[in-house]
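Bug report (template v2)

What were you trying to do?
Predict the complex of my protein with glucose-6-phosphate.

What happened?
Run completed; filing so the output is reviewed.

Input:
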Amino acid sequence: MFGKKNTKAWNQLESVYKHFKDTQMRDLFASDANRAEKYSLQLENMFVDYSKNRIDDEVMTSLFGLARERGVEEKIQDMFSGKKINKTENRAVLHIALRNRQDTPIYVDGRDVMPQINETLEKIKDFSEKVRLGRFLGYTGKKLTNIVNIGIGGSDLGPFMATEALRPYWAKDIKCYFISNIDGTSCAEVLNNIDPETTLFIVASKTFTTIETLTNAKTCRKWLVDALGEHAVSKHFVALSTNKEEVEKFGINPENMFQFWDFVGGRYSMWSAIGLIIAIAVGYKNFERMLEGANAMDRHFATADLEHNIPVILALIGIWYNNFYDIHRYGVIPYDQYLQYLPAYLQQLDMESNGKTVTLDGKYVDYATGPVLFGGAGTNVQHSFFQLLHQGSEIVPIDFIIPAISHNEIGNHHQILVANVLAQGEALMQGKTEEEAALEMQKAGKSEAEINRLKKFKSFSGNRPSTTIVLRKLDPYTLGMLVAMYEHKVYTQGVIWNINSFDQFGVELGKKLALNILPELEGTAFGVEHDSSTTGLINHIKRIRK
Ligand code: G6Q
């Protein structure tokens, strides 16, 4: 049984931590001219510099020891061979099969899953091309140029993030919209701006039972039927789901349904039919390039030794902070406006996957698991929460992501952007001592008294970790690599923590309670027992709405 106390590698890391913990990265850089080269890796057009982390050879060797002890190598193979690693739901976890460009067979319960995956890909190709070329038209014969994805969680965040990330590749005449929130505003703000004759609704729901998605889809269906009549539905609605029965019940022709399977988790599903809107927006070829990029990362993850394995290394560095430095926060800052929704996407990927406290053996963990992840696009966030990153009492390890070439090389914008991301990493690592701050003020002609008054405020502790990921350019292939890298990082951490990264029971309780409260708000149920706060809030809101 895995518990931190009874593993050799964990104990080894604890003793390494004791003598290493106060080591300053500044000193490590000063004493080793090759540090950056040693702690960076290149995979195709992605370069990962992890040298600005609190690590040295002994730390890394001990971390690799932990990974080996925890069976990371075998567990990677288990995923790729279709084993049912989602043990609580007894499912295989095969997002890697969705982008298995080699088309090698992958068996689940003795059945190769590749033929059905390829069949759906063909269907996505065929349909996305027809829409783009105006061969699949709306009911009144007009081209479908407004594409609306209705979905939530894993059926929204991935396609939304990727579609936005690949905006430069959008067909000129196509506009994409996303309706996710049950808040009527989400529907209203889209429907107010589109024309039913030119709108295609994609209802994306693995289960086809999610209240938000079904309510939004019903509202959109009614809006369309009111404008064009019931017969128009089959020309304006398609469904992405595993649940044919519910799709039919909802009133979408099963011919307009794109299938996926229970071995694809919601937050891992943008590579499947859930990615249909991406394919329509950027074209099937580009969608395929995204799959190819992810596949390149998959092959790297499955075959590189741990010491050269990017997702594994990032996972281990995360473990080092989380479990030894007791740093349970983590930031992702893309310096690319097109990647502005990546942090929100990764928030789900990481926090829903590894926000668990029960091990695969059904015991409570005695160590920290998934960290709190947040982020936003640079340079904007430099002007908001970066103050805390530089001088706050919390240490927050950061992933910086920057493409070397921009899609919009206007004047020197991109050079300024690059200068900023590199400066942030440098500043976090180097910091500024009180003496350095004093010297600076002296040079600027400040008085002794003023220098003494201000030098603490103007000093930076430094030794704050970051990893810098440089992409050649944000294209579909590279986006695929990047996202797959994070998926595998999350899995590796889940393996080390001995938790199931692929279930999400934690989101169930609130959903159930909402179903209890709804009839009370609607006035069809009374006297349901709650705590006094919940009862008070229900009554307060009912009074206002009367
Ligand atoms: C993701 C989760 C969750 C799910 C949504 C939507 O891994 O399972 O975010 O994607 O709850 O579910 P449906 O696709 O079934 O509507």
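What did the reviewer find?
The chain has three domains: 8-69+304-404+464-501, 107-287, 509-545. The radius of gyration is 25 Å.
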